[in-house]
Design goal:
The protein has 304 residues and is α/β, with parallel strands linked by helices. A hairpin with a 6-residue loop joins β3 and β4. A 7-stranded mixed beta sheet has the order 1-6-5-2-7-8-9, with helices on both faces. It has one domain.
Length: 304
Amino acid sequence: MTRRLILEEIINNIREQPETTPILALTKTYGKLWPHCEDARIEERKNEVFQHIAQSSYIPLQTNPQQAPPPFKIAILDSSFNPPTKAHVQLLLNSLTTSLYAPFTNEPVKVEFDACLLLYSTKNADKVLKEHDAGPVDRVLMMENVAEYLNEIAKGRVTKEKASADESNSSVDYKLAESRDDISNNEMSSTANDAKFHSIQNIAVGITNSSRFTDKSRALLSYCYPAFSPCLYFILGFDTLIRLFSPRYYTDISSSLSFLFSNSYTIYAERDINDKTVENEFWRGNKWAKEYADKIYRVEIDDD
């Protein structure tokens, strides 16, 4: 069975599950930190994936601080990936390798991540698949290609010059290699830099049936428990941040956000670095965003 057919089968199986049962399946992993994924060959893991889908249910994390493992920080780039672009790559790399900023104080914060995840949802609260959009299997295959190349960059196997010479990949690959080569110019110590790229060496590609972040969080917590106690950092655009705090997507926004931010943070990119009108209005007018402001960070991206 080809990889495309296997992915098709896994995606269809996930789609059939109700959103009341949040599901996560990893199709590609690098490093040995992801549970249930000692290898990345889904051909050999298909039965395991389906078994996880059948048995998946959220298990509360340990509450005894003497028993609980240290938080395992996962950066999650959640997107429709239609297709994966240079902007996706830049958003992920900047979130992993540069300072983040608190929304009101603008104080820099440095987070050292343990792993990162490219996450695709088979369902979306707003978007409907259009005629010329890439299909789910194609999107996952492209995500896997990006993850593989990011992992090569993180290990120093691809230089800026090599990426530039490969015209077929230069639109994305040059940016990746350039980020790797230029990282020594930023303000962080070499130890911190190594930690940042360490997370990319533990990159994975995942599929979920959940459209809402609360359910995506449940799926990830269920998948990771009890191997480690995850702390999730969802990376998203500003428009998605607005939707995250919009009551129209919840039956009970108070309890939903309370659960989400009990073990998650968000990292958002500015909508327009030259015009902060919409962003300022959001922070002034959304009481839920202000309530959880200490769980929200801003990442700066290049204006190009």
